[in-house]
Amino acid sequence: MVKHQPLQVYERQLCLSCITGIYGCRWKRYQRSHDDTTKWELLWSLILLFTFCLLLVWFYFWWEAHNDYNEFNWFLYNRSREWSDGTVPILATTAAGFTYIAFLMVLALCHIALGQQLNLHWLHKIGVTAALLTTIVGVISVNQTWGQEWDVVPISLQATGPFLHIGALAAITALSWIVAGQVARSEKTMFQVVVVLLYISVLLGLYVVPLYITSPCIMDPTTLKQRPDVIGHQGAPMLAPENTLWSFQRALQMNVTGFEADVAISVDGVPFLMHDHTLERTTNAEKVFPGRQTDDASHFNWTDLQQLNAGQWFLKDDPFWTVHSLSPHEKDLIANQSVCSLEQLLKLASYHNSTVVFRLRRPPPEHPCYDSWINDTLQAVQQSGVPQSLVMWTPGEHRAQVRQLAPGLIQTSVDKLTPETLHQSGISRLLLRYNQASTQEISNINLTLYTINEPWLYSVLWCSGVSAVSSEAPHILNKVPYPIWLMRPDEYCLMWVSADLISFAVVIGIFIFQKAGEHQDQNILIDFYNPEQIMLSAAVRRSSRDLNVMKEKLIFSEVGNGVGSAEELYVDNGYDYYTNRGISQ
């Protein structure tokens, strides 16, 4: 008769089994080990850590780059000639990759905290490698096609830096539990010294980081300047088709103080609003003029341009995912929009006393107005009846002549020039991308910065003293009556000093608690000496496959026909039950 004889009673460790099973596919007890992690697995742990840090930066970059998603999509359109939201697959893969790598990092930390040997499964190694290579390719691609966007990272840190510091400090403080546990359990003095010194270096570095954090929002609220004016870039292109009359009217409803537009000149000399070089994306030129949709927009006369529909594409492509929020009446108005002329925009601005700034694109050399483009545009401005003090003139060509013919225009440059050059050219205002101006320049020059769509960026520029911004989202900035956050320097100093002191006290407490707990565990082992358990622990340190099989037999053995005791099982597997040593063969 077969007799079941349990040789050792084990407490179920479902949590530990899940941790080691998911991380290294070691679901069974005999597969786990408390041995030191091999150098190969340590290398993979470093690769995992590097991948996590790289993905963290990559994820943060795309999170803060939300302000410029439309700019990125336009870059993609110029390459593929197909309009689509290219940020969706990037965000999806970045979020999935970051979640996966972060989960593996948590599992690795759990292994370290529980004293388990790190042994990343080969499938996870493939996944980590794929995530690392994909992220590196993404970083290289952004550098080549959209390199200027990296500037958003240091700019965003002016808004998020103080809070990221608190978050990082909390994370490193919590990590002290694992560090203290490793130091307390280790019997190697050199290991203890290296780990403690490394951890203290990181911790002290975080303690002094606020000395290098600068933000214009850390200021005396009484010195805050007035709210920057908001100029509707192409009107309100998130709510209506860009550069159409309805788009500018929607911008007026959002309390903008001016308009920004892109101007081209038709073949018969009429300035009209068009951002792209062709009519393919924003009109139905392919339907009305088959085969001409890829021609330069300035090769059409004004009569032809008036036949085009400039609104239906917006309802079809939904470039900003906002069509669902529009009413049926708004959709009807959008569906009937046509190409807008510069004169129509100037008359609208004159009626509402709004500023107008436009970028004038010179037509191709074979164009009839190639030489007269400045005069044709200036004539349209004068014929509209708009006060010259409302028009910001940006073309740099023949600026001296324009100043003589229309001295009331606000001379504006879209290039970053020295104050001496600005004074000599009679330029009183700059129109720059937000990453082209420093805090010092903002306070000394009359600036309009584009394109500002996010409240955090608007708040930073407000605190910096910018007088005006150009935005594609005036409906969003209209809901920002005050900077998102504003803090006095003494309040910020009190906040980070208090956080440092609390962190230091918690870290010291954790190290003391872990050290005391380790001493208590050693005393318990001495008081409750268990030879069989010690024998099993010694067996755990053996890494041979035969010994693992032997331990599995100890747990789930069927005793009979010559195998009746634990001693026999050990002897059968080459192990001396009494001396805890392997039997030489």
TrEMBL record:
Gene3D superfamilies with a match to the protein in the record: Phosphatidylinositol (PI) phosphodiesterase
Compartment(s) where it occurs, according to its Swiss-Prot or TrEMBL record: Membrane
A cellular-component GO term for this protein: plasma membrane
A Gene Ontology BP annotation from the UniProt entry: lipid metabolic process
Keyword vocabulary terms for this entry: Glycoprotein, Hydrolase, Membrane, Transmembrane, Transmembrane helix
InterPro entries linked: GP_PDE_dom, PLC-like_Pdiesterase_TIM-brl
Pfam families: GDPD
Molecular function per GO: glycerophosphodiester phosphodiesterase activity
Membrane topology value: Multi-pass membrane protein
Sequence similarity: Belongs to the glycerophosphoryl diester phosphodiesterase family.
Protein name in the entry: Glycerophosphodiester phosphodiesterase domain containing 5
Species whose genome carries this gene: Sparus aurata (Gilthead sea bream)
Originating gene: GDPD5
